[in-house]
Specification:
Helix content: over 70%
Number of strands: 0
Number of helices: 9
Oligomer: single chain
Shape: globular
Number of domains: 1
Distance between the termini: 102 Å
Strand content: under 5%
């Protein structure tokens, strides 16, 4: 008896996993809506996004660094069962989040394009049965900074953003995005383009995702520059004010003495 599964089974199982994933994320969202009924829909959706970010980073980290194969050297190889599972979990989430964003019109064209490209890339990897390892690698790099992004949003809503914690979250987010998503992502992009096993359509998808990463990187660099400039001005103003207070005569500070 052959150990290989028929093509219909290999197609049906990922489809079933994606459907189950979509239902699971939707149920989690409804659970959050019930538990935090005093909060708005975006609060609950971002809780789902935070949960997905942590879960998918841990899952793809295991796929890439433990289970293998290594995406830098095995791009374009046949998908493993664990890779298919990770891709299905992620695809179900993106279907949920894309539907939510369209329904509530909460995101701009760049983020919608990112979601559409992510859905297309994962779908292609599942349907063709190849390039799962580098797709999981891209998901790991892309979602690594997502929990920090959601944490930043929650800090704003709770009035805790203008603090040392908020600054630490922003700094870590910028550093991780620049080093992992752009730095390591450039190496991944090169390996995918030069791999003889990777299909042309997957290489084109890699080009789209890489360009979107740079669009985000430019926006993040602008944000980092503006925030650093504002922090420097605030520090200079406080420094001048402290110096002025020290130079005041004692008699002027207490007229009764």
């Amino acid at each position: 008896m052959s150990s290989q599964r028929p093509p219909s089974f290999r197609t049906a199982m990922p489809a079933l996993e994606v459907i189950c994933s979509l239902i699971g994320w939707l149920c989690l969202y409804l659970l959050f809506c019930f538990a935090f009924s005093q909060r708005g829909p975006e609060w609950n959706c971002r809780l789902v996004t935070l949960t997905h970010g942590v879960l998918i980073v841990l899952l793809t980290a295991y796929v890439v660094f433990v289970d293998g194969p290594w995406p830098f050297t095995h791009a374009g190889t046949e998908n493993t069962e664990l890779q298919v599972f990770a891709l299905a979990v992620c695809l179900g989430y993106f279907f949920f989040d894309m539907g939510w964003c369209v329904c509530y019109r909460s995101e701009g064209p760049v983020m919608l394009a990112h979601h559409a490209a992510s859905i297309s890339g994962i779908l292609l990897a599942l349907l063709m049965g190849v390039s799962g390892c580098e797709t999981c690698g891209v998901i790991f790099g892309s979602e690594l900074t997502n929990p920090l992004l959601q944490t930043r949003w929650f800090l704003r809503r709770l009035g805790l953003y203008d603090s040392l914690l908020g600054d630490a979250v922003d700094l870590l987010f910028i550093l991780l995005f620049a080093t992992v998503r752009v730095g390591v992502g450039t190496v991944m992009f090169y390996c995918e383009l030069t791999s003889p096993r990777t299909l042309l359509i997957m290489k084109l998808g890699g080009v789209v995702m890489y360009l979107l990463a740079w669009v985000f990187m430019v926006d993040i660099a602008r944000f980092g520059y503006k925030k650093s400039k504002a922090k420097y001005r605030k520090w200079m103003d406080n420094h001048k004010l402290a110096g002025a207070n020290k130079e005041k005569p004692v008699g002027l500070t207490n007229k009764r003495n």
